[in-house]
């Protein structure tokens, strides 16, 4: 599937990916897309840029003393200091100066410096991943695609809010194209039926889906503007006996959004 044909979907998935709400297999597949496509990776980078300033809203806090004590223990500074301390003191000698590597102030400064250097490295790395404005052409929009005239798109999620199916509605050719985004299990002897959910009123049966959840479904006289969302239910072969409501459980649903 060429995600660059659906820029709004790419933006939506990139936002969910950065926020951490895109999980499981869908997250891994989107990561693969981002690794292979600069336009998808650029959308991820853009959402990271939008969200990263939120960290500046948090008030700075000094770590408690226990943190530095733990660092001393991890580095063995506390043990070394205890081991070199004399057991019986007859005459208190002048305390020798601590070496650089036994200096807690040094380690504090070192930790702060490395943290700042890491932050700079992250910024440089992110900038290097952003597509160049002079060398990378803009991703084609849906309207520029000669083979389809998609006017509306819906990402259908399962009950765990994981995306499992993309529905691209081509109003010009009165067809809906299905793209699976996750695993779609259909119980034996059952079938999937697509429903249009209007802003008010009862659902409308739009057609039966292929068992693979991939392919085209004719839209007939139905118009995408009539529906605010799409849903999929599990029905007996042939669909629900009631054209105005599913008879089986609704397993997927999502908002139907205009492309432009």
TrEMBL record:
Entry superkingdom: Bacteria
Anti-sigma K factor RskA C-terminal domain sequence ranges: 115-250
GO cellular component terms attached to this protein's record: plasma membrane
Region described as Disordered: 236-260
Annotated transmembrane regions: 105-126
Feature: compositional bias, Low complexity: 236-249
One record GO biological process: regulation of translation
Record GO terms (molecular function): sigma factor antagonist activity
Entry keywords, A to Z: Membrane, Transmembrane, Transmembrane helix
Database matches in InterPro entries: Anti-sigma-K/W_factor, RskA_C
Stored PANTHER family: ANTI-SIGMA-K FACTOR RSKA (PTHR37461)
Name this protein carries in UniProt: Anti-sigma-K factor RskA
Naturally occurring in which organism (per UniProt): Paraburkholderia fungorum
């Amino acid at each position: 599937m060429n995600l660059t044909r659906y820029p709004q979907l790419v933006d939506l998935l990139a936002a969910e990916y950065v926020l951490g709400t895109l999980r499981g297999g869908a997250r891994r597949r989107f990561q693969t897309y981002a690794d292979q496509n600069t336009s998808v990776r650029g959308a991820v980078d853009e959402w990271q840029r939008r969200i990263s300033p939120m960290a500046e809203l948090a008030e700075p806090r000094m770590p408690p003393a226990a943190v530095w004590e733990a660092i001393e223990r991890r580095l063995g500074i506390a043990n070394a200091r205890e081991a070199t301390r004399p057991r019986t003191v007859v005459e208190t000698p002048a305390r020798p100066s601590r070496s650089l590597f036994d200096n807690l102030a040094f380690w504090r400064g070192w930790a702060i410096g490395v943290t700042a250097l890491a932050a700079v490295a992250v910024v440089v790395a992110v900038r290097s991943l952003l597509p160049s404005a002079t060398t990378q052409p803009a991703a084609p929009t849906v309207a520029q695609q000669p083979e389809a005239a998609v006017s509306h798109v819906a990402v259908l999620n399962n009950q765990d809010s994981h995306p499992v199916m993309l529905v691209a509605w081509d109003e010009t050719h009165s067809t809906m194209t299905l793209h699976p985004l996750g695993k779609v299990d259909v119980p034996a002897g059952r079938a999937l039926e697509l429903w249009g959910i209007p802003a008010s009123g009862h659902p409308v049966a739009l057609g039966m889906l292929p068992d693979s959840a991939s392919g085209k479904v004719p839209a007939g006289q139905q118009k995408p503007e009539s529906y605010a969302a799409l849903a999929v239910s599990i029905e007996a072969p042939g669909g629900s006996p009631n054209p105005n409501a599913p008879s089986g459980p609704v397993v997927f649903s999502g908002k139907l959004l205009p492309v432009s």
